Amino acid sequence: MSIIRYAKNTFSKSAWCAYNAYRQGAHFRRRLAETERRLNGSREEILQFQWNRVCRMLKHAYETTTYYRELFDSLRIRPEAIQRPSDLLQIPTLEKSTVRVRLGELVSNTYPKSQLKRNATGGSSGTPLVFYQDNGYWNRRNLSVYYFDRWAGWDFGERQLIIWGFPANHSKAGRAKEQLNSYWRNHWWFNGFNTSEAKMVNLSKKMERWRPQTILAYASSLYQFAQCLHCNGLTPDWGLKGIISSAEMLYPHYRELAEQVFQTPVHNRYGSRETGLIAMECSAGRMHINCNDIYLEIDSDEPYTKPGEIIITHLNNYGMPFVRYRIGDVGVLSNEICPCGNRTPILGDLLGRTTATFRSKDGRWIHGGYFTQQFYGIKTVSQFQLIQESYDLCKLKLAVDDAFTDDTLGWIVHKIKDALGADVHVETDFVEKIPKPPSGKIAYTISKVTAKERR
Question: Taking the model in full, what pTM does it have?
């Protein structure tokens, strides 16, 4: 390592320490060490801590929000009556529609507006969801992120390439602030919302000189970057320790190509704007649940074998409690003890958004990744989008080149019918381009069939 690089890394590490001391107080290092000890503890210790936090949040929600007081009173239950995980089932799930309609009643009356920050989902699968987080939420969240990101090789002050989205309305002052933050954090930001092959090739050349130690990227942006380098015969030799894929589903062919091109493990990080970090993949390839911040349930009568919708109780956002929040994803638990040595519970499989999980007439759930894999390697298709309108109808949008053939279309339709049923009608629409939503992330698979509609 050159003297200049060593000096910059040392400066950035010191800047990180100063930043965290400013945000979290002089006890930041102690709090981080406590988080590490907690998440490195025994399964019994982890679960006991988590349940204690659940009980504390239930009491807070009941005492300080109109919504939960009315809900609990209508059910004739008291927070202290919830003494074991099975008791939580007495509390109805919190739906996104409820958050939209009763937003003000979900906010804690102990927090003035000056101590709350407005946030919203990206709206990639519908209307953005508005919610609030208290000022201390991000500090508590960051402790968990710091802990889990180290599994992928990240550490304070080390160089990280970030392929993420830039706000479309970023002001000049906002851009200057981001540049300053990137400098002291030792980050290199690349706009994943506005890219091209030429921009990615140029980025690769810059990274040959800058040599990041980790990458944090949208799953689709990571795949596009890997595709670009692979097609142009470029072999990164940056000394990468690991890659963190986040914000979108990490499909198997995304991971396979990225690990082949960058010659380093890809770690899947699962989270949401509403609840923060939910789970992180370890070196053994298991998704560990972030018991420091959330309590996770699967809405299934057999959660360890039968997939169901993921339900989250957030343990740290006291400004606006989320109790048994239906996040809109589908998964299944695992009762395995991970060979990596960490004893946090494991999310056995993550099937993705409920809107991207297809359902057949005979009751099967089909991972949206099944359909994306069918397009892997079809060079005549530049973009696609498959929408399940009903059990009997799918709409397929395709952006293709002149070499695309009827045989290729027939094969694609056959694979769709093979998964959903031979009597499913596939309506094809050829388009020049599939537009990006405001979030910048295209949903390649969308299902409008809900569990309630299942026959």
Answer: 0.80
First to last CA, the chain: 62
For 408, the domain range is 358-453
- Is 377 within the bounds of a domain? yes
Chain position carrying tokens 């956002």 = 317
Residue 263 CB partners (closer than 8 Å, separation 6+): 236, 240
Q: Which alpha helices (H) appear in 25-136, and where do they start and end?
A: 28-39, 43-64, 66-75, 96-101, 103-106
The DSSP 8-state label assigned to residue 388 in this structure reads E
Say what the alpha-carbon torsion angle 295, 300, 303, 307 is, to the nearest 10 degrees: -110
* Structural domain contains residue 242: no
CA distance 402 to 261: 29
CATH code: domain of residue 424: 3.30.300.30
pLDDT digits (tens, 9 = 90+) for 401-445: 999 999 999 999 999 999 899 999 999 999 998 876 654 566 788
Three-class DSSP category at 63: helix
Adjacent-strand bridge partners of 218: 246
Note whether residue 408 is domain-resident: yes
Q: Residue 438 is which amino acid?
A: P
Count of domains for the chain: 1
Q: Are 140 and 316 in contact (CB under 8 A)?
A: yes
| Token pair in block for residue 16 | 């990180």
Distance CA 161, CA 252 (A): 22
Q: What is the pLDDT of residues 303-314, one digit of tens each?
A: 999 889 999 999
